[in-house]
Specification:
Distance between the termini: 103 Å
Order of helices and strands: HEEEEEEEEEEEH
Number of helices: 2
Number of strands: 11
Helix content: 10-25%
Oligomer: single chain
Shape: flat
């Protein structure tokens, strides 16, 4: 019987390589483009289309079939003056709805996005009082998801990655009557991606702080010199 201790280094090496490959999983921040979600809450045919881009990837497509995802709301219907939150989860990308993608400089014109998932969470929104039957509201959102694309012969994906991002959501709401209760429900959401605000690196902040401190010290020296000159002149 072989010594199990001899197999331990190989097992540790395999584990390290596996964890390293998991750590190198591709992640892309989406910084431009949009996703629209039609009829996300109301009992009709939900659908979506998307056209967005990040570092090394640009993708567009859609899925207008029932079951392409939905949105949850903290109220339905929502009354005027009420604050509500909502999130969207788009999970189904039908075989019949192909799109296109450019990945690392190569463009593919017949791409299936099966298995992809897009999730959006919107900051709380307030329904205005005395609003018309159809209203448009805006709010910030954060985003994460997965994007997988396969091209003919569709035997293996050409890319598979995790996504994140942020931006501004435009919500279209219409007055509805649900089980005798009148209020508003979502009929359309458009998510427009925006790049994140640039956060200075610690070294940059240190240099900036040092520079400001130097300017302040020079100003103090000048004020002290001015006071000495004034006192000398008075004497």
């Amino acid at each position: 019987m072989r010594n199990p201790a001899r197999a331990l280094p190989l097992l540790l090496l395999f584990t390290a390589l596996f964890l390293a490959s998991e750590a190198r999983a591709e992640h892309v921040v989406i910084t431009s483009g949009f996703v629209t979600h039609q009829n996300p809450v109301l009992l009709s045919f939900p659908g979506h289309n998307f056209n967005f881009a990040g570092d090394g990837i640009a993708a567009r497509g859609g899925d207008e079939r029932l079951g392409s995802g939905g949105s949850s709301m903290s109220c339905l219907p929502c009354a005027p003056g009420q604050t509500f939150t909502t999130s969207s989860n788009i999970t189904r990308f039908a075989n019949a709805a192909t799109g296109s993608a450019t990945y690392n400089g190569t463009t593919y014109t017949n791409v299936l996005f099966n298995g992809s998932q897009l999730t959006f969470v919107i900051e709380p929104v307030v329904i205005p009082f005395d609003a018309p039957d159809t209203i448009t509201l805006t709010s910030a959102f954060i985003f994460n998801g997965t994007l997988t694309g396969a091209a003919p012969p569709f035997d293996a994906p050409i890319f598979s990655m995790t996504l994140s991002g942020q931006g501004l959501a435009t919500l279209t709401m219409s007055r509805i009557n649900l089980l005798g209760v009148s209020g508003y429900g979502l009929t359309r959401i458009t998510y427009e991606f925006q790049p994140a605000a640039t956060v200075p690196e610690p070294a940059t902040l240190l240099l900036l702080g040092t520079g400001l401190a130097g300017v302040a010290e020079r100003m103090r020296r000048r004020r002290r010199a001015s006071r000495r000159d004034a006192n000398a002149g008075a004497a």
